[in-house]
């Protein structure tokens, strides 16, 4: 089933619960390697990236699988027999690199294929390695694999040269079992870092400061498994709200920590939508085309780069001209040529896209290139005249569970084909 076909024009109305956060889940799954015993994660989204991480953990010798009784629970026993994450799995998902910190911290060594770049950028891992080296790991590059080894890691001060979410998570996890105190300066503040820190503390770690740019970890001798409910996916919530705005609908998302959506909510309000925030829920009502504005993505609490394509889609039919600046990744405009095929008026200038609102988009066959670009194309298709076919939807399935069913439950005319 490789294509999603959406008939534009329906106004989205109703409420839908978001799935658990894909990005939180991946880091939490890696953290299970630090623990003696079983880790249970609930509210896990059934997406391809989670399946890939389960395969990687199994390849390491851990026991990692979906629960027989609950379709959104995974159970992981972090025992490891072969601390090597194979290339054919790592190349599918760069978040696989998150197993390196736990492996070297708990088992004294880890080999992970160097994750290649991807559609949105080179995405090096130099900051991950800088942090692990500071903790005393010996790093060796060997035939495309990164090997990290240490008898026991030792706490240290690590000042990241730039804000990196997975880099912060990787080094924070490694530091939980290092001897002594580690201070992470210029740490990422994303909610996925904060949620991981909370889980590590529940496992017996001593972590403070998560959510700020300075995290302090005091090493302990060992961690135990936990039973953890994954937070709702803030990016899926933002994606569905953007769909509500472009269709001038009345949409409520449920099951998300609204504090993690504040900047997105602020932007949607600036775009002219009316938003009500309740406990775990956000309602958006829009009655007119979005207002044009300037968008600049930035590390949390700035506007999430993962929301950029979806908001740009809305701006293609906004009243006026907008500028979208992507500051986090160097090539995260892959959705632009596809939106242009739908009649969008966009001019690229380095890291900025100049978007002039048009009256309407015209449906067209378009190609997904990466997870959030494809989500942006779906959002655009909801407002285009005619049928838009988004192909290579395996990109969407990496991070969204049954997105077409969620949108259909809000009134979208959308189906999966092929
Ligand atoms: C996480 O990726 C997310 N993925 C991404 O979501 C998200 O876009 C990104 O954070 C930024 O918020 C997961 O959590 C699995 P970074 P991550 O390290 O941690 C550069 C999605 O769509 N960098 O914060 O890999 C890097 O090249 C995905 O769900 C280095 O230079 O992103 C980028 O330009 C896409 N050296 C910038 O930092 C390093 O060692 C931010 O990347 C690490 C990163």
Describe the structure.
The chain has 418 residues and is of the alpha/beta class. It folds into two domains: 3-19 and 232-417, Enolpyruvate transferase domain (UDP-n-acetylglucosamine1-carboxyvinyl-transferase, Chain), CATH 3.65.10.10; 22-229, Enolpyruvate transferase domain (UDP-n-acetylglucosamine1-carboxyvinyl-transferase, Chain), CATH 3.65.10. It is built from 14 helices and 26 strands. The protein has helices at residues 22-31, 48-59, 87-90, 100-107, 126-134, 165-175, 191-202, 234-246, 262-270, 308-315, 335-341, 371-381, 394-397, 403-408; strands at 3-7, 13-17, 35-36, 38-42, 63-66, 74-77, 84-85, 109-113, 138-142, 145-149, 157-159, 181-185, 206-208, 214-218, 223-224, 227-229, 250-254, 274-278, 281-285, 294-296, 321-325, 345-349, 352-356, 365-367, 387-391, 413-417. The strands form seven sheets. It has a four-stranded mixed β-sheet with strand order 24-25-1-26. A four-stranded mixed β-sheet has the order 2-17-19-18, covered by helices on one side. β22 (345-349) and β23 (352-356) form a beta hairpin. The longest helix is centred in the middle third of the chain and has 13 residues, at 234-246. It is globular and about 65 Å long. The relative contact order is 0.16. Bound molecules: ligand EPZ. The site of ligand EPZ has 24 residues, from α1, α5, α6 and α12.
